[in-house]
Write a structure and sequence with these properties.
alpha/beta, 8 helices
Length: about 260
């Protein structure tokens, strides 16, 4: 029996990158998966990929920054697949630059997606988990949610907030039998976010992924499927005694 047989997962930002890899990991182990993304075509494409694996899946347009939109998206997923057992708050953006220069719009957009988005999606899905007294949540934070870095102040601030949100929600949900954890990836390539960061880093004369890789203790960058496998573990019964954790996936760049 697969680990997630009979379970329904909802993955925000599921139209590509790490979200797509998480969806494949969960579906590959038996879950039915709802993909929510601002790009309806991306969500639909990933859902079609999962259906070819013999899994039930649906792609839904939804904006985590808008509570009405994400509530409607969650309702559409539950109508198509059933009550959500697993929520993965993966949607995120990165805007880089010195804190004294970063445009206010970039600052506010970063919080709207990375922090408000986790808040809105959790409130859209978790009341059902509480009513059923079962479920788990995994939030995507970052190693920069544990240590700040020059030119990443806006992003780091949002990811520190995600870690704090995760720990607080874990305390509140424990009496209801619901586990809440987060993962803290390091330098992960083959994602749209990494392409945006590397393009902007190049424009600013800052190191790109290829330049930073030799300084990582394991000597290489990471990949979306390596994040996805840790997320799947945290969603599984193998992690039944894990809540409030912030798992590092950094190749040794951060050890806590």
């Amino acid at each position: 029996m697969a680990r997630f047989d009979g379970r329904i997962a909802l993955v925000t930002g599921g139209g590509g990158g790490i979200g797509r890899a998480i969806a494949h990991a969960l579906a590959g182990d038996g879950a039915a998966v709802g993909l929510v993304d601002t790009r309806a075509d991306g969500a639909a494409k990933v859902a079609a990929e999962l259906e070819t694996l013999g899994r039930r899946a649906v792609g839904v347009a939804g904006d985590v920054t808008d509570p009405v939109s994400i509530r409607a998206a969650a309702a559409a997923v539950e109508k198509a697949l059933g009550p959500v057992d697993i929520l993965v708050n993966n949607a995120g953006i990165a805007r880089i630059g010195p804190l004294l220069e970063v445009p206010e719009k970039d600052w506010h957009d970063s919080f709207a997606v990375n922090v408000d988005g986790v808040f809105h999606a959790s409130r859209a899905v978790m009341p059902g988990m509480v009513a059923r007294r079962r479920g788990c949540v995994v939030n995507l934070a970052s190693w920069l949610g544990k240590r700040g870095a020059a030119n990443y102040g806006a992003y780091a601030a949002t990811k520190f907030a995600v870690v704090g949100f995760t720990q607080s929600l874990a305390f509140e949900m424990a009496p209801h039998g619901i586990r809440v954890n987060c993962v803290c990836p390091g330098l992960i390539v083959d994602t749209e976010m990494r392409r945006v960061i590397d393009d902007e880093s190049g424009r600013r004369g800052l190191p790109q992924a290829k330049d930073r890789a030799p300084g990582i203790p394991l000597g290489r960058v990471g990949y979306p499927d390596e994040v996805a496998r840790v997320v799947a573990f945290l969603c599984s019964d193998e992690a039944s005694y894990v809540t409030g954790a912030a798992y590092d996936i950094t190749g040794g760049s951060w050890m806590s």
